[in-house]
């Protein structure tokens, strides 16, 4: 008779455990799930009890999906430092060998003050298992392919192969692209040359910048709510503000981090799950994008490294259009101040957020579609020549606006409107850590996700008083009265005003109903 005690105990990977939990969540009976996966009811109960731990590990991407144990490393700070370095290398698409990682581990261990640490082969294997890393040997073919990555052959290869496979199961409505851009939101025309080419890795200018994430689909029918990252978590201008036309987050550098991007991804994934949709999301491989959480409704496709300038739709005109609209609105504000002889005040974060969001929602569907076509992801279609002429007309008006403001603000003759629009195109939008910064984080426990102080770098504008809803209704009525005296007001403007009226009246009537009910209950 076989000895029951000699039976080898089966171990499950994190991925397998999550599949068991998902099977129960789908509505299957626990007994049937246990039989399907060949586990005992007590093991199933343990998986369900520990599900929060599994989900946290997957969400943080701190262990690989094939990992069977969640035990921390003996030298945890060395492990974290090496992994942080590895993430930076991985984001740059640099292939590394095991020996390179071991040498780097010894170097970082010395910087952390460990003299007895040995980066053995066993440590390397455990490090790989902990983080789900598959290493490849760097061969001449790989090296040559990376060195020649900017060539047209790489773009053509992606068009002919990988992208066709990626989009095969999706309609243009369900194919999305997300990308970040930096904005010097207080930049004035006369300071364009000083800002041009600035990467803004820190210092005083970090207080004057924002990072904005945009996401849209290939049909141009859906633009997601933008995410804007600033430096101050609680700027004075957002006091008492409960609704914004975007999501706002903050950290000390005002740039995108892995945590912020993953938080945004999880929110999009939850919305898609609620809507019972599955989407394809195309992104670049910047450092904020390279360690993603587990997603149920989003398939992520990476654009080839060093090719986003010709393959990423948002980079092919959409973000540029947003900046044109943002800076044209800024010029109009400057012109109004000049004509009224008022001092030119700097734009605060709330004003910048409103203008960036307004610019984003104003980007036309045809512009979005043309940029996706230019990227070669959706087929080219015939473009009406009248549409091209109409699209060029606003440029003439903008040039006149620029010329007027440029003269009034003494902008150098060699600076034009396009220089003003593209002045912040070179801003760093995601975290890039050096070895020294990695070690500083390990030693001091600092976190680049921490935001700046409330008032640091904040424009000193008078605090806005709270507006009563009756005042808002009166202002809307005045606006309607003003528009009725104007000639040629589009019907869409009156439609939008009707929507504002309807919202305000709904708010005030609900408030009155609630107060009457309260009064009635108090008299009972």
Automatic annotation (TrEMBL):
Keywords tagged on the record: DNA-binding, Nucleus
DNA-binding region: 30-50
Domain of life: Eukaryota
SUPFAM superfamilies, alphabetized: Homeodomain-like
Domain HTH CENPB-type, residue spans: 66-137
MF annotations from Gene Ontology: DNA binding
InterPro entries linked to this entry: CenT-Element_Derived (IPR050863), DDE_SF_endonuclease_dom (IPR004875), Homeodomain-like_sf (IPR009057), HTH_CenpB_DNA-bd_dom (IPR006600), HTH_Psq (IPR007889)
Domain HTH psq-type, first and last residues per copy: 3-54
SMART domains attached to this UniProt entry: CENPB (SM00674)
PANTHER family: TIGGER TRANSPOSABLE ELEMENT-DERIVED PROTEIN 6 (PTHR19303:SF52), TRANSPOSON (PTHR19303)
Name of the protein described by the UniProt record: Tigger transposable element derived 6
Protein's organism: Prolemur simus (Greater bamboo lemur)
Gene: TIGD6
């Amino acid at each position: 008779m076989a000895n029951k005690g000699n039976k080898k105990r089966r171990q499950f990977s994190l991925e397998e455990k999550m599949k068991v939990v998902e099977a129960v969540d789908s509505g299957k009976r626990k007994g049937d799930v246990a039989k399907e996966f060949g586990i005992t009811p007590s093991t199933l109960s343990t998986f369900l009890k520990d599900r929060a731990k599994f989900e946290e590990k997957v969400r943080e991407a701190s262990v690989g999906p094939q990992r069977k144990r969640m035990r921390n490393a003996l030298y945890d700070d060395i492990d974290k430092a090496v992994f942080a370095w590895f993430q930076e290398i991985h984001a740059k698409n640099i292939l590394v060998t095991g020996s390179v990682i071991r040498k780097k581990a010894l170097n970082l261990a010395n910087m952390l003050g460990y003299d007895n640490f040995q980066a053995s082969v066993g440590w390397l294997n455990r490090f790989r298992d902990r983080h789900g890393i598959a290493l490849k040997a760097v061969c001449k073919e790989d090296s040559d392919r990376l060195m020649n990555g900017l060539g047209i052959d790489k773009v053509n290869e992606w068009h002919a192969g990988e992208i066709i496979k990626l989009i095969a199961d999706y309609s243009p409505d369900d194919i999305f692209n997300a990308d970040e851009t930096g904005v010097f939101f207080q930049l004035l025309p006369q300071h364009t040359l000083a800002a041009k080419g600035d990467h803004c890795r820190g210092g005083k200018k970090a207080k004057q910048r924002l990072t904005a994430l945009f996401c849209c689909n290939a049909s141009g029918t859906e633009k997601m709510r933008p995410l804007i990252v600033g430096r101050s978590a609680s700027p004075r201008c957002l006091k008492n503000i409960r609704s914004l036309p975007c999501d706002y987050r903050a950290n000390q550098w005002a740039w995108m981090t892995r945590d912020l991007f993953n938080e945004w991804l999880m929110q999009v994934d939850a919305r898609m799950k609620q809507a019972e949709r599955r989407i394809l999301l195309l992104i670049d491989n910047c450092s904020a994008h390279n360690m993603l959480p587990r997603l149920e409704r989003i398939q992520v496709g990476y654009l080839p490294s060093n090719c986003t300038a010709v393959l990423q739709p948002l980079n092919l005109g959409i973000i540029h259009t947003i900046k044109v609209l943002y800076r044209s609105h800024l010029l109009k504000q400057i012109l109004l101040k000049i004509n009224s002889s008022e001092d030119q005040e700097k734009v605060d974060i709330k004003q910048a957020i409103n203008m960036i969001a307004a610019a984003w929602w104003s980007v036309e569907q045809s512009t979005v579609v043309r940029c996706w076509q230019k990227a070669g992801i959706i087929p080219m279609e015939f473009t009406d020549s009248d549409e091209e002429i109409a699209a060029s007309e606003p440029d003439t008006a903008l040039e006149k606006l620029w010329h007027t403001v440029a003269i009034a603000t003494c902008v150098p003759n060699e600076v034009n409107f396009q220089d003003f629009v593209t002045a912040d195109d070179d801003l760093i939008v995601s975290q890039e850590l050096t070895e020294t910064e990695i070690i500083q984080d390990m030693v001091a426990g600092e976190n680049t996700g921490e935001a700046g102080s409330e008032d640091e770098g904040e424009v000193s504008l008078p605090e806005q008083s709270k507006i009563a809803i009756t005042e808002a209704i009166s202002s809307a009525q005045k606006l309607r009265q003003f528009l009725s005296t104007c000639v040629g007001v589009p019907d869409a403007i009156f439609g939008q005003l009707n929507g504002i009226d309807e919202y305000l009246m709904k708010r005030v009537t609900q408030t009155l109903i609630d107060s009457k009910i309260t009064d009635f209950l108090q008299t009972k």
